[in-house]
Amino acid sequence: MSYSINSASTGISGSDFILTSGVITFAEGETEKTIDIQILNDSVAEADKTIIVELANLSAGSFETQQYVYTILDDEIPLVVIDSPANGVAFWH
């Protein structure tokens, strides 16, 4: 079977994670395989991102699910800046 990143993923390969596409081969009697996804950390406060791994070229009845969704949780705390109360301006970055 083959796997690839679905274009509906909000995470970006090379920016948020490292995983391209590939092929998984099961030997007779094997029931599990691992796909390694390297998560890339940055210092930018941003929304959580998703990675949708799509399986293709499956044998009939071999998998119930053909897409697996993983979430990359953002771990940066947004910086809050408050301007003068007279200006009434507050924003975060």
List the helices and strands and how they pair.
Blueprint: E1 2-5, E2 17-18, E3 22-23, E4 38-39, E5 49-56, E6 67-72, E7 80-82, E8 90-92
Antiparallel strand pairs: 1-3, 1-5, 2-4, 5-6, 7-8
CATH topology heading: Immunoglobulin-like
Shape: elongated
Kindly state the number of beta strands: 8
Q: What is the CATH C-level name?
A: Mainly Beta
The main pleated sheet reads as: 4 strands, antiparallel
Which stretches are poorly predicted, pLDDT < 50 over at least 5 residues? none
User: What structural category do the secondary elements indicate?
Assistant: mainly beta
Into which percent range does the helicity of residues fall? under 10%
Count of domain modules: 1
Rounded mean pLDDT is: 79
Distance between the termini: 42 Å
Order of helices and strands: EEEEEEEE
Provide the gyration radius in Å.
Answer: 20 Å
- How are strands sequenced across the largest beta sheet? 3-1-5-6
| Count of helical stretches | 0
In short:
This protein has 93 residues and is mainly beta. The protein has no helices and 8 strands. The protein has a 4-stranded antiparallel beta sheet with strand order 3-1-5-6, with no helix packed on it.
Q: Overview of this structure, please?
A:
By secondary structure, the protein is an all-beta fold. The chain has a single domain (1-93), classed as Immunoglobulin-like (Sandwich), CATH 2.60.40. Helices cover 0% and strands 32% of the residues. It contains no helices and 8 strands. It has strands spanning 2-5, 17-18, 22-23, 38-39, 49-56, 67-72, 80-82, 90-92. Strands 3-1-5-6 form a 4-stranded antiparallel sheet, with no helix packed on it. A two-stranded antiparallel sheet has the order 2-4. It has a two-stranded antiparallel sheet with strand order 7-8. The relative contact order is 0.25. The model has no long low-confidence stretch (mean pLDDT 79).
